[in-house]
Amino acid sequence: MISSYVRNWIKILVTSNIKELILKVGESDSSFDSLPEELFVVEGLNVLNLRGFKLGLPPDHGIKFSSLRNLILTDTYLDEQLVQALCASCICLEKLRLSCCRGLATLRIAASLQKLKTVWLRCLPELQIVDIAAPNVENIYIESQLWNLQVVKITCCKSLKTLYIVDVDVTDGWLEDLLVNQPNLECLSLSGCLKLQKIKISSDRLKYVALSWCLELINVVLETPTLTHFRYECDENLPTLKLMKSSVFLVLKLEFSLKNILDSHWYSIIDQRKNKMRLYAR
């Protein structure tokens, strides 16, 4: 537990109109400490980076982070009402990063966050629903914990360029709808998405695609004339890969187990791309 001395020190900092506060206590399995309520009314704060605390909505609902641009919370217990209040009041927020935080079942990032560019969510054990509608988001990273995340909605994000999805049971239909509505996507990485079976990607903007440990995947079709890097990793059965349209600069990187036997289909791809292909066998 943080001492009264540390609490008083935080209160002094608050009155000093600080611009950046990085405060980390304890380990991930320790009890959570509450922060002084005075912290939530620092209007000039630009960066808030916390670890090991319990954050709850102040009794008067007073949150005045009108200048906050970067919010990073790690090993923190979050009150769902507080998170929604933060999303409503932090109109200048550019980066939101939540890692190994507890207490959050639903996260809705509204269209009102016009300046938000990056959303980074990792290992939030109670999180089941993510709904991102911020129109100018460019980078999204979502990693579920033990596939607990049930719903991922990414809408109105026409500026999205980079998307990483890890250990989320997204479906073929979900991916198809996503790609149709993200015309500016340049980088797509899917890892541990166990419900994916057939992937068809048609895009004239994608430059990088990575697929790893999507164990049920049987067919991949790429119509991507600007694609320069494709990476596939898995120790299970290799899917069928069809390059309908591809760049002459495309580099393929395949990582698989020696127990997999490449068929004539894969040998033909290797022959066509032998100068731009890297094979890693385990």
UniProtKB/TrEMBL annotation:
<dbReference type="Pfam" id="PF23622">
    <property type="entry name" value="LRR_At1g61320_AtMIF1"/>
</dbReference>
<feature type="domain" description="At1g61320/AtMIF1 LRR">
    <location>
        <begin position="3"/>
        <end position="146"/>
    </location>
</feature>
<dbReference type="InterPro" id="IPR053772">
    <property type="entry name" value="At1g61320/At1g61330-like"/>
</dbReference>
<feature type="domain" description="At1g61320/AtMIF1 LRR">
    <location>
        <begin position="152"/>
        <end position="247"/>
    </location>
</feature>
<protein>
    <recommendedName>
        <fullName>At1g61320/AtMIF1 LRR domain-containing protein</fullName>
    </recommendedName>
</protein>
<dbReference type="InterPro" id="IPR055357">
    <property type="entry name" value="LRR_At1g61320_AtMIF1"/>
</dbReference>
<dbReference type="InterPro" id="IPR032675">
    <property type="entry name" value="LRR_dom_sf"/>
</dbReference>
